[in-house]
Amino acid sequence: MVKEEFCVWVSGQPASVAGTIARALELELAGRATVVLATERASSSQDGPLRLVEVVVGAGPSGAGPAAGAATAPDVVVPGDGARAGESARMVLRHLAAAGWSEPLDDYSDDDEAAVSGRLQAFGYL
Predict the structure, then answer these.
(1) Which residues pair with residue 51 across a beta bridge?
(2) pLDDT digits over 51-61, tens only?
(3) Which of 64, 75, 93, 110 is the most buried (most CB within 10 A)?
(4) How far apart are alpha carbons 107 and 4 in whole angstroms?
């Protein structure tokens, strides 16, 4: 059973990789979740009526930690390697499925990743 609607907050560096991951998640979660691409980590005040799932791309945002106001760890941290953006998106989708926020990835394969990458390349995103 999938939980209520939720928001996936994607931030981190490099911005192009974070954007690629956010677009892949948006395509996969269309109609089930809102995907937000942001330049900064989500603040706790952003966790309003929708459950917020925070994804950080890269080694972690600079200034992260309790002293910087980021008292909580993100839900998912993925590599900022552009060549592995599809794999990172699948990692996030697996986390969401394990937490009950989305359907399992039984039918999501490398062919699906290639199709998403092809669409993103066609639009000049990669």
Answers:
(1) 6
(2) 899 999 997 64
(3) 93
(4) 22
Q: For the domain with range 6-122, which CATH number is right: 3.30.9, 3.40.50, 3.30.70, 2.60.40?
A: 3.40.50
pLDDT confidence of 109, banded at 50, 70, 90?
low
What are the residue ranges spanned by the domains of the chain?
Answer: 6-122
pTM of the model: 0.71
For residues 74 and 41, is the Cβ–Cβ distance under 8 A?
yes
Expressed in angstroms, the distance from the first to the final Cα of the chain is 35
Strands (DSSP E) found in 1-126 = 6-12, 33-37, 51-57, 76-78
Token digits for 78? Answer: 């993925």
Alpha carbon distance 98, 2 (integer Å):
10
What's the burial of 70, exposed, middle or buried (CB within 10 Å: 0-12/13-18/19+)?
Answer: buried
